[in-house]
Amino acid sequence: MPLRHRTTLTQYLIEERRRFPNSKGNFNALILDVALACKAIARAVAMGELGGLYGDHAAEAGGAINVQGETQKKLDVLSNDLFIRMNEWGGHLAGMASEEMDHPYQIPKPNPRGKYLLVFDPLDGSSNIDVNVSVGSIFSVLRAPQDAIDSGRDLTEQDFLQPGATQAAAGYALYGPTTMLVLTVGNGVSAFTLDPNLGEFMLTHPRLKVPEDTQEFAINASNSRFWEPPIKRYVDECLAGKSGARGKDFNMRWIASMVAEAHRILMRGGVFMYPKDNKDPSKAGRLRLLYEANPIGMIMEQAGGRASTGREPMLSVKPSGLHQRIGLVFGSKNEVERIERYHREPVEIENNTPLFAERTLFRD
Ligand code: AFP
Question: Which of 182, 205, 228 is the endpoint of a domain?
Answer without folding.
Answer: 205
